[in-house]
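Exam revision sheet. Question 4 asks you to relate a sequence to its structure. Input first:
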Amino acid sequence: MILALVLGTLLAVGALAFVLYPLFVETALAPAPVAITATQAAGAAEQEAVVALREIEFDRATGKLSDADYGELHARYTERALAAMRGGVSGDVAGDPVELAVLAYRARLRECGTCGPRPEPDAVYCSNCGRYLPGACGSCGSAVSEPAAAYCGACGRQLAA
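Answer key, C-alpha cells:
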C-alpha cells in the first residue's frame, strides 16, 4: 500500500516537472531574431500604410466608416506612408521586435499588382486573380498582364514550368 502511494507520488511529481520544465528553462526552440535592413522595413511600412489607406477608402465607400473617422484615419495613414516614402520607419515600428519580424515576413512574400501580398512565398501566379506575379517576361522584359498566361505574348517563351 505504501509502495503504491510513493510510486504514485513520484510519478505525479515527475509529470508535473515535465510539464513545467519549459516555463522555467529557456529552450533552444525559441525563434531566432530576424534581422532586416532599414530599406526593407521602410518598404514594408510604406506598403502597410498604403494598404491601410485602401482599406479605409473601401470602408468609407461601403458606409462602414463615418466621414469624421475617415478624416482622422486618412491623416494618420497618409503621414505614415509619407514617412516611409521619405526613408524613415514610423516610431511605433522602429523599436518593436514583433513589428520588425512581421515586416521581415511580409518582405519575403510575392506581391500581385491587383491583390497585394500573396500568402504563398513561392507563388508564380496569384492565387486570387491568376496574374503572373513577376509581371514581366524573364527573357524579353515585356509586361505580362493576362491572367494565367503560360507563355509570353511578345516572344512566346514559357513563363513558368
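Marking note for examiners. The two ends are 71 Å apart (CA to CA).
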